[in-house]
């Protein structure tokens, strides 16, 4: 591998819009390319999403590379890996960055295998090390701790980013005018061996994008009391979330679960009622600007994370908050 190009790779979300996490990945990609003294490219597989070039310009991308092929119209693991491997063999990037989503979890390690590249998943930051090489920081043990890896010695690296831990930061120098080109690949010999037969439901407003979230946990006591969470969320113009036990108990849909195995959120305000503050829950909300907690146990862990804490019974406090919010 000769070039030191940094490539952020993404593909259509099926809605014609830019895939969630792309802007955060581009922001980090630009920082790393700057540290390496190289260019940032954005490789987009499949149909062209709306606003591609404008977004690329805002995030300081030097070149947009597109691969369009009938086999890439919708996510198909073998075709995507093959297309990416052919692209990397032509362009020899030093670093390929993905926003870590269910599809990219399937693709990134296989691409690395095909290229003889190093691969790191769950990455929350990439920085230049003292010797000019790169260091990747990844979350470990369900977000409880972090690992730092030195990336040196492999011809290239494939890194999957936990983009909810990153900020989307447009280029300070102002927008660029990236060149866009189409890269040809031959996918005629590719056969899919795994087919996606069910995808997560993605209708309605998304917790990951909500500005205000009101979440309830086991401390609500019974499924009927969850309506207090919904009422308060509605009254303050937010969305209702939940801790895992009440999802597991079937009180609310799994799409509302916040945490390590649920949604990773970053609202301005996160109000947690009857939630203990276990690390697996906090992995999904600790990036909130302000956390407010209601818990009757003054020693509950959630009070270590929150800016405002109310010690008391959430079944008494929530109706008061609903009343106040409606006034
Ligand atoms: C691999 C793994 C992944 C996980 N992923 C997730 C995840 O994504 N999301 C998640 O949430 N959890 C997850 N968990 C579970 C997590 O460890 C906790 O068990 C869970 O978050 C606890 O939920 P809770 O706070 O609602 O319940 P509890 O731990 O039972 O806490 C209830 C809290 O409510 C308080 N309380 C009780 N009654 C009242 C009242 N009337 N008024 C006010 N406060 C009251 C109690 O003091 C207590 O602090 C995961 C666990 C594992 C092992």
Explain the overall architecture.
The chain is of the alpha/beta class and 327 residues long. The protein folds into two domains: 6-182, Rossmann fold (3-Layer(aba) Sandwich); 207-326, Rossmann fold (3-Layer(aba) Sandwich), CATH 3.40.50. 27% of the residues lie in helices and 24% in strands. The protein contains nine helices and 14 strands. It has helices at 22-36, 52-58, 77-91, 102-115, 226-235, 244-248, 279-282, 302-305, 314-326; strands at 6-11, 40-45, 63-67, 95-99, 118-128, 134-140, 145-151, 157-161, 179-182, 212-216, 239-242, 269-273, 290-295, 308-311. The strands form two sheets. It has a nine-stranded mixed sheet with strand order 7-6-5-8-4-1-2-3-9. It has a five-stranded parallel sheet with strand order 11-10-12-13-14. Helix 3 packs across helix 4. It is elongated, with a radius of gyration of 22 Å. The structure holds flavin-adenine dinucleotide (FAD). Residues 142, 217-219, 221, 243-245, 257, 259-262, 274-276, 278, 280-281, 284, 294-297, 300, 313-315 line the site of flavin-adenine dinucleotide (FAD).
Labels describing this entry:
327 residues, alpha/beta, Rossmann fold, 2 domains, nine-stranded mixed sheet, 9 helices, 14 strands, elongated, binds flavin-adenine dinucleotide
